[in-house]
Amino acid sequence: MSLSLSALRTANLARQAEWDKAAGIDVVYRANELAGEVGEACNVIKKLSRERLGIRGARATVEDLASELADVVICVDLVAMSLDLDFRGATLGEGPFKVVLGSAAAPPLTSAGLQLTRGCGLVSSWVIWGASSVQIGAALDGLLQDCALVAAIEDIDLGAAVVAKFNATSEKVGLATRMIGGEA
To answer: How far, in Å, CA of 60 to CA of 120, rounded?
Structure first.
């Protein structure tokens, strides 16, 4: 499923009005939130890789990875929202956010996971140092592309995962805002 990032922004704005009524969350909080979600995605990547190598340890599923990647996408938009950045009508699953691996060898999942950490580190650095919105926006764009790559490697429908995770989180914390399909 393709997911309009405009629809995600609409849903994030509506849910944020419910969740943070005092508007106390700032971009530094959002960048920390993003770092946590990237870390959780990488932890799932580690567990999937460990299992594929036949090494003992805790296990995870591709569905777990889809859920964590969805959290990363949602947090990328929340960071962008904090800075009044917009992805100009971009859609997950289309344009730069569509990755088709075809017959080319996919990069190892663990390498793609490191791309996520690199992208998150860049976003965090730019936020800490007060970089321009253009620099932070480019880093966020790159992080979305990294999410799309990981999703393509594992054949994850990232748009559907974002909608499912958004709705599950709203339900878990008792908020009314939901996404239906790719719409808010």
So the answer is: 22
